Each structure stands twice: as C-alpha cells, then as structure tokens.
Batch of 3 targets.
Target 1
Amino acid sequence: MNISRNWLSRYVTIDCDLETLCDKLTMAGIEVEAVESAGTVPAGVVTGRILTRKPHPDSDHMSVCTVDIGGGTVLQIVCGAPNCDAGCVVPVATIGTVFHTPEGDFKIKKSKLRGVESQGMMCSEKELGLSENHEGLMILDPATELGQPVDRLFPGDTRIEIEVTPNRPDWLSMWGVARDVSCLLGTEAKLPEITIPACDKPAPGLVTVEAPDLCTRYIGRLIRNVKIGPSPEWIQKSLESIGLRPINNVVDVTNFVMMELGQPLHAFDLAKLKEGRVIARRAKSGEKITTLDGKTLTLEPRHLVIADAEKPMALAGVMGGEYSGVTEETTDVLLESAVFFSSNIRATSRELGISSDSSYRYERGVDWDMAELASKRAAQLILETAGGELGSEAVDVNTGRPAEKVIPCRFDRVRALIGTQVSNERIVEIFRTLHLKVDDVTGSGCVVTAPLFRLDLEREADLIEEVARIDGLDRIPEIAVTGKICGSIREDAYLPLETLRNKIISLGFYECLHYSTVNRESALSDSRFTESDLIRLKNPISQELAIMRPSLLGEMLGTIERNISRRNLTLKLFETGKAFCRNPELFPEERFELCLALTGLKHPEQYSEELKAQYDFFDMKGALESLFELMNTKRYRFVPVEDGRFRKGCAAEIQIEGKKAGAFGELAPSLVKGWRTTYPVFVAQLDMAVLLAADHGVGYYVPFSLFPATSRDVAFVAPTGLTHADVLEFIRKAKPADLESVRLFDIFEKDGRKSMAYQLTFRNRERTLTDAEVNARFDKLREKLKNELKVELR
C-alpha cells in the first residue's frame, strides 16, 4: 500500500518531519517498508523570463535565448525546446544545480554548445520530476515573480510504502491511515465536506440482488450527461503520487475515492447495459466473461457477477468486463458501491488468477457504512469534474446493517497487561481519537463499541493492544526475566526411557505402539504366564481388549504376522511400554519392558550372494551388544537357556551385573505356525528396570588416536564349558596395558573340546608401541590364560 504525504495532509495536520512520522507509523503497527521522494525540484532551479530568442548559428533546431532570472541577472542559454519563445516564464536551472537521475547525478556547468556559450538550462516538467511531459519547456504563469525557487511553487511529495497486515483493512486508504496518524500526533483528522444535490427521482428495477449471501449491500446511482475527458490536475497528481495512472475523469474519480476511503467503486456505461439495469447474481455454469485486462474466463455458480439483463458485465469485486467501462462516448453512468462477501471474493480471485486493487480490499473486508459515503463522495467529484446531473436517487439494496461489537474494558486490566500507569482519561482519549464509541465511563472501566471499519476488534485484549501501540510501545518498561533453578535434567523420570528409545532407533529399529489391553490369546502367547497371572478389566471397551497385557510379546507377534501377510518380510521392530502381572513371584504388578524383533534379509538392497544373507541368532545378539555399548553398560553376559518362547537350543538369557535382565532367541515353531515366511524370527525381551539401573558410568569424549595399532593372535583348546563371555570377562579383569579390543575370529568343537582363536589389538594414545612392548604384554596375557583358565595354547 502506497500513501502520499501530501495527500495524507489533506485530512490530518502532520507537524513533524518525515523520519518521525515513519517511526511513529512503524511503532504503531503500520510498518514502513520504503520511502521515495517524488516531484522534488532540485535546489538551484529558479523562475526566469525569456527576453529574446535567436536561431543558433550552427544548428537548425537549437535557439540562443537571453533569460532574466531577477535581481538584474540575465543569462545566455542555448535551448533545443520548440517553445522557448520570448515572453514565456520558465524554470531555469542555474550553474551548480545538481539533478539526481537513475543514471547518476548530473551537474549544470557553464559550457559551449556548438561554439555558443550557455550559462544554464531551461527545464521541462519531466526534467524537474513533476510529470512525464518532455515535449517542451514547462510554461509558468506570466505573473510569476522572477528569481524565486521553483520548489516553493511545486513542493515535492514523499511516497511512503507501508505493509498492511490482513487484520487491518481500514489501513488500505488514506483516511484509514489518517485516523491513526491523528491519534499518534495528537491532531484532528477530518474528511472534506461531502455534499451532492438532492434528487428524489425514483429508479425502479435499477438494481436487483439475487445472491444476498454474497452481496450484502449494493448502492446504485445514475449520473447523466457527463462529459468524459482528462481529470483535473490535482486528481491526476494525487493518483500519480501513489503509482496509479490517470485514465479519464470518471474512472479517475472511482480510483481516487477507493484510495481515499478504502471503498472500491465501479462506473458502468449505462448505454451498454441491456434494459439499463444491473443484477448481482451467481454466474451460470459455463458462462463466459472477458475482463478489462483482456482475459476470457469461464465461470461457475460459485462466482458472483454483476450482469445486465442478458450477460455478465463485471466479475463482482474483482474486475469489470471489457465492454462495461466508461469510454469517450459515455454520457450516462451507473455508479456502483457495494459490499461483497470477503471469502467469496478471495476464492474467486485465487481460482481465476486475477487480482486487483478492488479484490485486495474486498478480500480483507470493507466497511459496510463506508459504501454509502463513498458513493456520495464519488458522485460529488464526478459532478465537479465531468459535469452532468444526478439521474436518480440512490438505490440501496441490502440485507441489513451488521451489529457492532460491544466490548467492556477494565482500566486496571489495561495497566496490568501493558505494564504502564496510563491514566483512565488517556485510555478513553485514545479510544475516542481512534473513532471508537465509548460509553458508560466509570472509575473502573468503560464500554467500547467497535465501528464496522474495525473488523479486528473482538475482545478486551484487542482494545488493550490499541492503547499500547498508540500510547507508545517504547513506554512499556523492561522487566528482567527471573529464572528459577529447578531439578536437574538427570532427575527427569522420562529422560532415561527417551534416551533408550533414541539409542535403539539409532541401531535401525522402528518403533511400534500397541494398546495396553489385549485378548486372552495374545496374553497367553508368552509361555511364562498362566490364566491366574492375568489382570482382567471389570469394564472393558470390548471382550477383545479385556486383559491388561502381561508382556509386550503378544502384540508384537500380531504386528509381525500382519507385515508378513502383506509380504513385508524384512523387519526390525521394537516397543517400550508397561506390562502388568498379578503374580508377584514372577514380576511386579506394573513394570516397563523392552521387546525387539528381527527377521528377514540383512542386505535387501544388495545383489548376488549378499542378497541371500538372512538375519540369524547372532545378529540379535550383536544388536543387544551394540545397545549395551551405546548405554555404556559393561558387565553383561549371555547364558544358554531353555525357554518355551524360543526354539530349543537357540535361546540365551541376558544377565546384567549378575541379575537376570531378560532373554532372546528364535521364536518357537508354535508361535510362528501358519506364517507365510521362509525366514526365522528372532525376539528379545528385557526388563527395563534392570537395564536402566545398571552402572552406566560417566561417558567422556575420547579423541581418535593418532598412532598405529598392533595386533596379535592367540589360539587355544579349552573345555566345551568355557564360553566366549567367560574369556572376555577374564581378559577384562586381567587389564592388559594398552589393550584396545578383543575379537573372536574362529571357533570349532571336536571330540568334546573347543578350539577358540582371538585377535588382540594394542594401541597407545600418546606414542607408537614397539614390537618388544607389545610382545611383552601379549606373552604375559598368554601365560595368564594358560595358568588360570587352564587352556592349552596352540
């Protein structure tokens, strides 16, 4: 939205400089985005009278003139304008005058043009930035005093571009901004007097509204015997000051009033309206209209049109039709001022891809009361600029004036919210200066009636915001934020659970969420529980959800089966949640449990032999080890076990710090019976209380070593009862210096004995180890394995 300072000054006195005005507007919510000077005559341009004109001796089109600029000073100026006749008073740029152009600054200097000295420049309107006219010199009134600065005769203007928020459509007009400026500067805002001749001639059938839900008010007014021509200079300059192009007197008036009052208008050529009337109706399906910009549109009943007796003449609230507008042959005008349903105009504009100044205002909502005032103002200006007379009384078809919002306001609440001790009188003054109606003023509050142009005022907080922005947001005191020390994040009961979830997700598992209530079959799928262990609900949602789940296994099995039945065969799933048990010898009544599931192909994205690799028991074991490593859990081990949930010989118990934490393995055939899969399914169930209660130590960042590692291999024959976990625990307790990692790379059994081979990696973080140092550490560990584990070294 562009506003002109000179235009704005017609309605409110602006007694401050431009910088102060822009600052106050921005602080009041009317954000100033850009400021541009327009029509500012450079200093050094004065009035002068051409005394003589002679042809240039070396040019066919230039003249040599003598110019009196007052004070006894006569200049010789070479000029190429066709109208530099003797006796004309013109603007003269004296030596030293600087013109600011888009191409750069241009300074007037004494020079010679084809051998003749020139002591200045006589100017056109375009050169002075007053208009686009450059056909000749700007001719001033012959009575103009000589030698006076031209910028006094043509004071410059300033175009201010403002950002209007969607909730303040009243700022889309000069008058709307003037109301706020008057409040900010403490001056009175006043519209020009609007009077039109009385006319009581009826116009039956002139306006018909067939869609009152989309057109709540339509005012039509006839003006006859107008003479179409250029607008007066003051209207043209007003429109140009905000970037609009003058067209003719009638059209310019509708644009002028729209920018002045915020109410879009349209002038129809009455002769082009069949039967001389208009109808506000819904478009017929497939009906077409060609708009003023030359686009042909196909309409539907959801679009509102202004039609004559035969066809659409305008797309209501958006743009007039190509053949409805005023031309040089127009003599009679039907002036439209209407209120359309904003949501319909917004939808029509977006759907058809047409936007205009009118639609921009209608989309946000216009003042119901302003439609009548704008109609009168436009009629007044048309009669003044185009002549003619009123052809009828105003025809006003409407659905009734909307109710205004009545909002109680408490003075103490105003002060409490904005934090300043603004007085009751100042609060009331602000409301009234903003043209809000204030009643029932008491010592504690008042009642404010929001006029229809303030669509944004709905509640007390909105009124308080008005007080804050007008009284000055800079007056609101700064209050230091006080912070209270609460419990440490480590005391957050949910943090360990969330941390565990994130670590499992980082291993590539996808989280499942199931109901806490299950059916009997799902509850008893976990072989650890019997009927007496189950907790049944007295008022279940349904019999299928009548039992509190004793573990997470049953619902996880259901999810796996559903995925497999839809041929989603590769799965990495997990769930954390509460389980419930009636038997205290098994578990507490309520506990947190973790369930992981693994099945399918390891590398479904690969090809050849790698594509055939399937998840196995050791992949689940590796996933658990990775989880324990991420949680910095050091003391854990896996012990073979027989468990009804898992296939015989393919299960292990998980022990953490000597406590039973859960079990994992390949699901028993009875649990996967009927599943259409060729891959084994592996599941792990852990008690989260044991897992989270373990000593996780304190994690510190350890930088990568800059020095190389050295490896040694050790192989031995041991009894079959010696497990890999036993070996790792023994080496951990032995604490060999600089030992970085231990990896089992070979194992086989024969004749009741077990052969195991390990790779030991040594690295020092501060220096490179020598072979002698590594060999000494390695030999010492070998001796301990031989003597204390009773193994036979190979």
Target 2
Amino acid sequence: MKVPMNWLRELVALPEGTATDDVARALTEHTAAVERVEHIGAEVTGPVVVGRVLSMQPEPQKNGKTINWCRVDVGPALNAQGHPKNVEEGVEGRGIVCGAHNFAPGDLVVVSLPGAVLPGGFEISARRTYGHMSDGMICAADELGIGEDHTGIIVLPVSVDGHALVPGQDARDVLGIPEDVLEVDVTPDIGYCMSMRGIAREVGQVLGIHAEDRYAAPAVEGRATEGSADEPVEGPVAVRLESDACSRFVALPVTGLDPAAPTPRFIADRITRAGMRPINLAVDVTNYVMLESGQPLHAYDADTVRGAIVVRKAVAGERLTTLDGTERTLDPDDLVIADDSGPIGLAGVMGGASTEMTAESTSIILEGAHFDGTTVARSYRRHKLGSEASRRFERGVDPVCAHTAVVRAAELLATYGHATIGTPTIVGGVDPMPRQTIRADLPQVILGQPVSTEQVIDILTRSGVDVTALGDSLTLVPPTWRPDLVDPYDYVEEIGRKLGFDTIGSVLPPSTGGAGLTDAQRGRREVTHAVAAAGFVEVISLPFMSDADLDTLGIGADDPRHATVRLANPLDDTHPYLRTTLLPGLVEAVARNLSRSQEDLALFETGAVFRAGEPARAPRPSVEGRPSDAELARIAAALPVQPRMLAGILCGNWLPARWDGQPVKADWTHAVLLAQEAAEAVGLRLERRADAVAPWHPGRCAALVVAGQLIGHAGELHPSVCRTAGLPARTCAVELDLDALVEAAPHGGQIRALSSFPVAKEDVALVVDETVPEAAVRQALVDGGGELLESVELFDVYVGEQVGSGRKSLAFSLRLRAADRTLTDAEAAQARDAAVAEAASRCGAELRS
C-alpha cells in the first residue's frame, strides 16, 4: 500500500514538526513495516514555474513530425531574463519548442527554465532546435518524475484551493512536490490498512491524535431505504441477490455526467502516487474512493445495462469478456454480476467489457457491494486475474462502506463532472459483529509484561472496539472494519501491536526433557557434514521445475520422475510443477556459476522431491477442533510421496593447478565419492554395479546399492544432456535416496572392543570374469573369512595376456586379528583359504599363480 503523505496529512492532523520518518517509525513499530520511502519530485531543482501559453504555431518537419513554436508567459521578471536571441521587441513571454499537442493558447502549463535540473540529472538550458532558440521546456508528468504519463504535457487548472494561478509562481507548490510516499507492507490479517482511511486511523491512534473518517456512517441520511435480499427496495435500479456470497449491494444511478470533464489535479496526482494510472473522471473517482476508503467500486454505463442487476453464481459454460479484453469461461463457483444479457462482471475482481464506461458515457450506475472474500479470492486465482479490488475483498472490506463509499464517489462526480445524483437501491444489510468475552488479565499473561485493565480498555476503545467491563471480564464487539478480531488472542495481538513491537521482550519457553535428535535426524546431519567435509559446497534451490527440465535431462514419460504434482498457483508459470528430482536445480546453479566465470564446481543439495501417486482429494476438516485420525489419514494419503534426496554435480577441476602438480579433473570417481562418504557416515558400505539410467551416460553410470537396496545412481551425464543444458562436457552427477540410506543404517549396535594383539596380513590375487563386480568378490571374501577377518581392501586390478581374454585379476589385502590371542601362521592361512574358497564358490574366482 502506497501512502502519499500529503493525502495522509489531510485525514489525520499530524502535530507540527512531525516528519515522514516519525510516521514511518510509528507504523513499523505498531502496525506494519514501512519498506521504503519514495521522494516524489525531490530531484526537481531550479526555476520550474507556472506558464501561460500565449500562442502556438504548428510547424511540420521533414521527418513527418509536427512541432509547436510557442510563446509562453512566465511572469514579467522571468520573461525579461529570456535568451537575447529569442527576445522580440514588443512580444511577451519566452519562445519554447514543444512536440506535444494536448494544450492550446490560454492554457496554464508547467515550464522548466534554463538552470532547472530534472530527474536523472537532466539540466535545462537554452538551445537551438528545429530552427528556433528554445528557451526552456514545457513539461510532462514523467519528465518531472511525478507520474508515468508521457503522452502530453501537464495542463494546470486556473485555480487551486480557490487561489488563481499566476504565471511565474513556483509550480512545485501547485503540483504538491516534493512529496514523500510511504510503501507499507500490509499483511493479510490487517486488510483494513489497504486504505488511506485505515492507515490514518492507525497513525492517529499510535500518535494519540484525531483521524477524520468520512466512511464510518451513511454520508447522507434519508437518501434511501434499505431492504433485504429477499425483499429489495423499489428504486431506479432493480437489484436481486441470488447468492449468500454477497451480503450487501448498493446501486446508485448518476446522470448528466460531462464525459469531457477532466479529472481534478489532486485526484490524478494522488492515485498516481498511490500506484494507479489516471484514465478518465468516472474511473479515476472510483479508484480514488477505493484507495481512500478501502471499498472497491465499479461504474457501469447505465445505457448498456439490460434489465435488473442480479448477483448470482455463474452457470457452467457461461462466458464473460472482462475489461482486459479477454474472453473467459466461467466456473460454477464464480460469483458474477449479471443482467438480462448474461454476466456483465466477475464480482469483486473485474467488470465486463459489455458495460464498460466509454468516452461518451453520461449515465452511469455506481456499484458498491460486500462480497465474500474467499469466493473472490478463488475466482481471481482461478482466472489469474488479480486486481486492486480482489486484493481488498480477499483481506476483508468494511460492509458499511458499500453505501458510504458509493455516496462519496457520486458527490465527487457531481462536483467535478456536473452530474446529478439519483436515489440508491440498497439490498441487504450489515450483519452484527461477533461478540467475544475475555479476561482482563489475558493480554498481560500472553504478552509477558504488565498491562493494566485500564490500558486494555483504552487501547481497544481507540481501536474502535465496543468494550463493556464487568468485574475481571471484558465483553468486546469489534467495529465493522475489523473482521480479523474474532477470538481472544486476536485482541491480545491488537493490544500488543499498539503497545509496540519494540516493547515486547523475547522470552524463550522453558525447555522440557527429551531424547534429543531422532536416529533419522542424526543420520541426515552426519551425511550432510561428511559430504561437505569431502569438498562439496551445499546449495539450496527452489523446489519447482517444468516439463522442459525433464526433457533436458532426457527423462522418458514412463519414468517415475515424470509423476509430477502441478501447483494450483505457481510463482512462475514456466515452472508449474513441484520437483521430482534435485538435478534441475543443480544444473541451474552450475549454469549461473558458469555465467560468472566460476568453472570448478562441486555442488550438492539435500531436500524433498514430490512424486504424485493415485489421485485423491483431501478432506477439509473443521478448524474448531483437532481433525480425527481418519481425517488425518485421508489427508496423508492424498499427499504426494515426498522422499528426501541427496544430489551432487561436478565439473571443471577437482584440484586446481599448483606449483607442485598438475590439476586433477573432476570425474565420475568424485561423484561416487559423495555417495561413498554419505554411506560411510552412517556406518554402511556402498556397493556399485553398472547400469543405464537417464540422465547418465549408459556406459559410465553406476547403480548405488547399500544393504542390497538400490538407492541411487552416479556417473557422467550423457553428452546430449550436457549440450542441451549448456554444461561442460563430461560433467558428472549423483543422486540418491537419503531417507532410504538413513533407514538402512545400523542403529543401536554394539561397539567392538579394540584388540591389543598384532595383525596378520595376507594378500590374495583372484582371477574372475570381467563382468564380475569387485564388490561381489569382496563380499564373498568377507563372508568366508569369518570373525578373524578385520578388513578387506582392493589394491590392484590387472587386465592382460597373463590372465587371459575376458578375465581380470583383483588383488586384495586381508587383515586378520583375534581379540584374545596372537594368530598362528596356520590360523591365518586357514582363514585366508576359507575366504578364497567362498569367492571361488560364489564368483568362480581362481588364485592367480
């Protein structure tokens, strides 16, 4: 919410000397954070004055453009200071070249004279252009930094606040610059602050001063009679409510509007500084009142409305062309405004093109309504059609303003557009606000600091709450603009905010005894620490991906990683799915680093992936109590499978070039190293076997196995993947199921005592077929060696003529040790022979002679 300070000062009588920073600090400490302060027009310096156009002569140019050679009166003193080459005997004013055409002789304009400096450091000087000496510049809003309109220069009114404008006076005073604009981060629970009315009320309460509220009660008594939804009142506009998603609807006819009437300067300036674009008087007035009151309004061209206005749910298949020119197919859950021709607006979101106000519209119907926030929110998300109106209805709108805001808008149209106000039709009423009873000492107990009953009553009363004290209990009824005040703790939060966030101390809750980390938590931490210690750098990526990401990795449609979960409201439409693999995020991280000349990378990430199961609809349990076990089970069953994964990616050099050695390229062994370190961190031994799985190179891909279970893959990425993703050739990657790894880890095992007796070393070289994995031979030696075998390590692999074609020799070092004695040579040889015999039985191994 952007808050222009001049507008705020009109609504709340700030004490003399109150600076913008004081207001920003008060809001931040008691209501909502002020993210920044924008200084509108602060860069404009030097002579920027009001000028009257005396004459303008169109001059066509060779480039097809027509410029205007103008004489502009900037007051006797400044006229006399004009450029000598541009002063004509007996001719008033300064000569200025202007390319705009939206003004005429006699108009008052803004003129920056030589010596002025405009935003961006643009210095104004007299210069020759289009055959004339242009002695200044007639300014548009964007040139002064006070708006985005560049289509024409600013035409000023003849008077402001009853004072006639005079050529030569400072135009900054007329334009209300410089002006500070606060940008307030309004959280969803304080939707009433999405208005100048709400911000002014908050500032007034915090600073202890009066804030004017033009919308708290009906603006004009006796102008209409209210009716119910079942029995609408008679009026010039027939209205029917056919859905309880609209509790109140006000339709006020306004006739005789001058379509050529300009928007007053103060309204155009204020809505521009609040972040909206001026369009025409009728639209600008409705936007102005919305920003001021928080109540969205809509204006229909009365001549295009057919029959009664009906508020109802859409019929399946109905279509509506909204004001943005898009034809939309409506959902039965959409709330629409309709007439005899069908839908003419999406309630609370956007009006329809068929009843849009045009430059010729003279009769309009002003709509002010109170719609259900949830219904509006679902509609605008369904149609991806967020608007200023829908954001306010979603957060909650004061139902009283449905009437008072419409009347305020009509009065502005009557004042500035010479319109005639008709009699409003008001259907529905304002429901009573919920009553709540709290203990007077509850804020003190919850906030952890002394808060007297008198303070509680004073703060809530100044917040608009009707407080009735009876003993140590308080009966509270919130004002209509505070739908957020529902349960006792909402009131405690209100009191805490008004006391000030800075006054509430931070108190840690007392710790209770517990068992510490679970085995799974401890295992995940040990894995992460081990991988980082091995030389990998942890990154965190967004958990979203697209079909293009899966195509880049070459993952086929039948792969489980294609079971995607689509987000209903993605942050980015190009990444509409939750990730099913960590690799797209790592690939993007590599690409980003490569673009910044970081070429030697070893990155890893841990996190959940999301894989869709059978379609299921989760129940929506009541918020009044704990969901039942059955409801929780159904909710859990509807969720996607969410295993935690560990993935890494490498490219460039593992070790850089140094004075004492050559660089070491990152390769598949380092990808396997990540998995090996992760497994060893939780007491598991990793086994590897050849495999072919996308996105890895089919001849350079290893399946990772622990305790007989496949948990992931590692190796070089496929060359086509590297080319498509823009990765260096032979980039390597690894991905494994972290949950499965930790679950397979031994827990609660006994610690084996260290033996003080010497170790017996035996080396064996076994010849096996090339297709036999080393891990299989090693496991056979471990099982055959029995309890005396302390460790088995591979130290040599030989392939050549001495072992024959299709064969390989694996040399292992066996360490044998007993816990209670020194092994004899015979015992060591017996254990070695048993290990070799098991390898021969399982793997066809033969001792190499």
Target 3
Amino acid sequence: MDFVELEAIEGLRWSWSSWPVSKAEASALVIPLSIMCTPLMQVNELPLIPYDPLICNRCGAVLNPYARVDYQSRIWVCPFCYQRNSFPRSYVGIGETNLPAELFPTYSTVEYQLGKKASASSSNFNSNWGNGLSSSSLPSMVSSSSLASSFSSSSLSGLDSQAAEPAFVFVVDACSSEEELQALKNELLLVVAQLPEDALVGLVTFDSMVRVHDLGFAECSRVVVLHGERELSSLQTKQLLGINQMKQQLVKMSAIQKQGFLLPLSECEFNITSAIEDIHSSPLVMSGHRPQRCTGAAISAAVGLLEGCSVTTGSRIMVFTSGPATVGPGMVVHSDLCAAIRTHRDLINGHAPFYDKSSKFYKQLSHRLSDASIVLDLFACSLDQVGASELKVPVESSGGFMMLGESFESDQFRKCLRHIFNHDENGNLRMCFDATIEIVTTKDVKICGALGPCVSLRKKNSSVSEQEIGEGVTNMWKLGTLTNKTCIAFFFQLGDEQKVQPSSAFFIQFITRYRHGNTGIRKRVTTAARRWVGNNSPEIAAGFDQEAAASVIARLAINRAESHFARDVIRWLDKMLVRFASKFGNYVPEDPSSFRLSSNFSLFPQFMYYLRRSQFIDVFNSSPDETAFFRLMLNREGVVGSLIMIQPTLFQYSFDGPPIPVLLDVRSISPDVILLFDSYFFVVIQYGLKIAQWRKLGYDKDPNHESFRKLLEAPELDAEQLVMERVPVPKLIKCDQHSSQARFLLAKLNPSVTQNSTYTNGADIVFTDDVSLEVFIDHLQTLAVQG
C-alpha cells in the first residue's frame, strides 16, 4: 500500500514509515521523524459512533483495534502502556464475532458523537449490539449508517444540551469607498440570510472611531462609540459596553440577550440587516493623507465583546478592510501619504517604526483569542498592503482565514466568503470550532512539537520531549477551527533509553475533539501502528516519503525564516541537503560522476531547489503582506497542496494528443503549444506565439478548424476546475508567449537557458543570475561525495 492510499485511511503522511531503534540513528536520518496529520480528512469508510469512547485509566488512550481483548474476563489491555482496563456493563455481549466498531480491524479511524456514557444505557446497547455490529451480519466494513441505526434515540438524548450555535461578529471598515462598501454589504446580507436562526451575531464598524452596534435597541439605530487611538484592556472594553457583570450570568442565555450587542439572529435579523444597509463611507479624507483607520482597536473591541458575553462554544470575528491601520493599536503606517508603507528592506534595516509594536499588540491579542476559542478571519481587499503581516499571528494561531484581494466586487472575494458559510446536506454550517488535538504515544516515542495553525496547551507528561519544535512542551494543542483540509506537522524523537526489539510495533494515537457546527461535540480517534527496524535496515529507506519530507522541511524553513535572514535559511537548507545526499546516495568517494540516488530519494533534491527559489524564502518580489499570506497558507496545507506551492505543475496542450505533464523548465515553452501552469496561488494559461496568432486570426471560429477550438477550450476548462476547487481562489492569468504577464510563468521555471547560455536552440531566454537545476545538482553531488 503506497503513502497516498494509507493517507486515505488514516489522514496521515509520515516522513519515515519505519523508525530506527536508536536515537543516534534517528538523528542521522537528517529529515526529522515527523507526521503530516490532517485530523478531519474525509477518510474512507468513517464510522460515526453514537456513544462515548472507552479511555485507558493510565495513559488516556482510546480503545482501538490494536488493544488485546480478553472476551471472557471482559478486559482490554492498552497497547500504549499495557494497563488492564475493564469493559463497562454495556459491553457484556462482546465477543470475537460481535465486535464494537472501535475494535473492528479495518477501523484505524473512528468518530464518536459525544453524549451520554455508554454505561448509562447498557440495556439499550446490549439489545442492539448484535443487530448493528455483529461481524457475522456485516460486510468487511461496517457502514456508518448501520452504526447509527443500531442504537435507539434514547442513547443520544444527552446531545441536545451540547449542541449550540456559534457566534459571528462582523467588523467592517467604513473607510472603504461607497462602491466597495456596497459590494461588501450585499455579500454580508446574503451571509446573514443563510445563518441559522439561533446563531449569535454582532456588528462592529470603524474608521477613526470604533462603533459597537446595539442590535437589541428597536427604537432607533444605537451604537457605543470607542476611541480608536486607545488600547483598551478586556476589562475596560466590558465596562464601556456595560457587560462587566456577564461572568456571573454566563449560564443564562437571557444575559446575552439583554445586552443587545450579541443576539440570536431570530431576535435581531431586522436590526442587523438595517445596520448593515446603513453603513456608509466615512467623510472625505484630507488631501495627501490616508483614511483614519483604527483596525486594531476595532478587533480588540470585538474580542472584548465576545469575552464579556462568555461565548465558549466557538465564535468568529470576521474583519473586512480595504487599507492599513493609521491610528491606534496595530498601526501600520502614518496617515500622511509621504510616509511609505513598510517593505521587506525596511523590516531588515529597522526602518519600519510601527512594526514591532503592532506585532506585539496582535501577539498578545492571539492569547485572548485562544483562551476564548475565538477565530479571527481577515478579508483584505485593497491595491495596497493592509497590515496582514502584523495580523498574521492571531489569524494563523486561531486557525482563521486570510484573503488578500483587490476588490470586494471581485469573484475571488465572493467565492471565499460563500465557501466559509457552506452548508451540509442537513442544512448545518460546515464549521468546526473549539478543537483540541491530543497525542498518545508508545513510551519510547517522545513528542517535540507541532507546526501549523495551533497553540500549545503546555500540557506536559512523560511522552513530551525536552527538545521543542514550533508549538512544543505539550502533548495537546488547541485549534480555534478546523476544516477537512487543515494539516498540522507533528515532530517526534526517540527516548534516551531505547529498549525495543526490531520488528516490534509502536503506536501513535491522535485524539481530535471539536464542536461540529451546531450539532454537538465529536471526537475523532486515529490510531496508527508502525514498526521499529534495525539500524541501517533497508526498510528505513523503503519507508521514506519524499513528498511528505519536502512539506515538513518547507514548514521548518518558513518557521526559521521568521527570525533569520533569507540567506541563512538557504544556507541551512543547503547543509541539510548535502548531509541527506551524503547519507543516502550511492557513490565512490571523491567521484561526483558516480553519485546516484534511488527512486524514492531522487525527487527530494529537486523539491529543495524549487523551495530555495520560492516566494516563501526569496521575498525579493513580494510585500510583507504577501509573504505573510504565502507562509500562512503553506503552514496549513496538506502534502499535495504544499508540493504544488513548492514545485508548481506544468501541463502542455498540443494537437498531438491529450495534455501531458512537462518539465518545469524554460525549454518547455514552444510557439505551437499551450501551457497550463499551477502554482496554487495563481494559475497561468500561456499561448505559444503560433497559437496566439491563429487565435487572433479567428481560426477557432471557423467550422473547418474544430480541433483548434477544442485545443483552446481544454486548458480553460481545466483551469476553471482548479480555480473552482481551491480556496482562497487563485488568480487566473491568460497571456501570450513574450507578453508582460508571461513573467508569472518565467519566474518559476528552471532557467536552463539564460543570457549566459552558449546554445539556445531558439528557446526562450531567462535573464537571471540564478543557477539552473542541473548546475545545482552538480554542486550537490560534488559536495556529497566528499563525505
């Protein structure tokens, strides 16, 4: 079974599928022991179990197919800590031919709908077990529908109390132009119309002041105005809004309703709709100045509102802005247009006067977001930067959504916003809130940390390593929200005293607890087993997943890039790659021509070449906002999406047959072909010179040239499919060979033909000082064989 097939079952991609038995040998692997985990991936045949899981009394692991079961004594032995645990009375009918879903051999991943304890309705379980879960009456896999129908509704009666609607606070920048505001208001009104009636909603608007709208005041439009230049604490915000006593009344929904700032939609739909319609662009700006915009104060007020109303079931603050903050906390640039907004060079040279203070303000805000289970989303539609770089930490750590666009009138914005508010087949929002991920490991495996949209809960036990990578010193992390594509990279190392036998198994269990929309709390449990192998065993090399390894190294690189210069990150990547090639290459010492890498290692150097040249490391042509966005997206994408970001795909369309993948090389450009280029963030269709000329002559409209019309349509249909499936929506660029926009493609291609090349054979020339992939590999081989 290959790595992709395993991921479809477990939701996991391992950099190494077999682990060595010694710590020294694990360190010598160069690529760390790591797992790319997509907790809510749509895995094959996922059973939904309508009762609470059984948990080991010692280590907290959940009952799983690898547990040893004594059916006669009704005892199960935990595979992680070997603790003997008794089954509750409800499992009295258990047997080899009558297994519950969590013990079914093919279910490494199961999901529990948390409610009443199984023991509380034992008679119900006993009478239904054989009907729904007997292996003799089932095919090889137990379907989730048969599981659900095997238990009566009485066992789910405890769920209603856990079902709760999330809260949404819309934070709207009133400094936008009237046209932009109108487009934004239209979309917000559509969102409000589709929200569940019990969803809590709030509205905050801002310019130089912050206005918190009282949606419960029916007589007229009523707002509380907060000064945009003041940095208010949580307590001060609550006091100014008059909700400082909310803590004592948090169990009473009426306490929220009385305040009026956050109300169920059923009670304030008219008021919030009217308030959104009444948002108008702020007065004209002084000549030569930017608008007075207090984005940081507005976000802080929205956080204080949710904290004061004690919304603990998950909430989102959705910020819609069209420019940088020019006053108050989180300030990005001075309002005077003579002051240019900061660039990467300014950040490096220390010429960005507001950057450090604003970043510190937002970092402190991210802790409040985590504590209150609040997600922060940023929709920035502007031709200039808005301060996404400063805002990156709270957006990323809360798991929020970030979109950088040009206009609220664009399809890109509309598609992104509507995607977030998608509904499932039952009409529930496809949103998950207030998630935690806990890892349980075999005692010889230590947890170093995680990289991704999560926060360490600093919950330390014997399985936690002293070495910290990313969000570490814990075996449990918090995530404000999750989607079925959110991916976290987890890092591990071996214990100091390894006492394991080669070929024996070790286990890692991922326990993800989350609030599923408005339908209650769920717990998904994935238990993975792999084998220890002897040092220098060929199984180690055979279990190397070079795609997962490239994704892991990319996350480590951008994590390092946050505190190091780009040249230092590239130097670190190069040293790592030389060690890797020296370790796993086959060669005669000091003879570069003899160097060879086996097939499951051969693509890794190529991935690293393109990573070095990518916008994640080389920020020369990007603004700080763009770099923040690119890195945030890479840090949450799965292996497939990450690889497209690192090494884009290139397909060639011609009269010779169906589209074919071609090398990401300037030599792939030809006058009589069409190229479809996908770098995840933008999709380029480039027409060769001949194709472009024929199109201008209108051959595609001539019935005698039907094949030419179909050739033009094919890449456009494929590009539309790519754009439709991806969020945020990539920018679609159509260009002709040698046109100005062809630079988006040329910048990413391997420059095998440059201004210094002797023989070009008519190929396009890339004007660059970058080395080509061939030269890079030659250097790598020369260094690797030196040992």
